[in-house]
Task: structure prediction
Amino acid sequence: LSQALNTTVLQGVTGQSLRVSCTYDSLKHWGRRKAWCRQLAEEGPCQRVVSTHSVWLLAFLRKRNGSTVIMDDTLAGTITVTLRNLQAGDAGLYQCQSLRGQEADVLQKVLVEVLADDQDAGDLWVPEESESFEGAQVEHSTSSQSEETSFPPTSILLLLACVLFSKLLIASILWAVARGKQKLGSPVVSGLDCSHDAGHQLQILT
Result:
């Protein structure tokens, strides 16, 4: 973990849930799928655990793989990963990734530590003695399984806006077609031409 300077350390309790939030530039990573992977070694490959929905507009929907759930708020630029029912084997180094084809950009590295359920929260480990983690962001996150019940509002608004815009566009096209047919089917009314009726003249009545 010698390159863990930008690593966020999160600590959870066995049997509970741990929520991980990875932020990113929403414009730079626009239209990309996101993934959560586990790094097998310090310099080894990162084994993908779960990724967001294949349709980018549906990225706010939760995708699950076992006890791991991922969802992406594309407008806010936040990936939320929930590790449910934490076990000792869940501890390790993970990555939030942005996928582009066969390549992946690392958004954030997360070191997950799992504590025993009888361990005091005041005994949470903080990596003060290790130079590898100097300047690392350390958070104590022990969220319960009842959390994560709402969808990201910004993604829902984006989806609703796209649906409403599509319906408005279709309605406009149908109205234009109907209006065109109405014009083609209406009879043409010609004006009266009094010049052709020379046999009739107006007489002044006294």
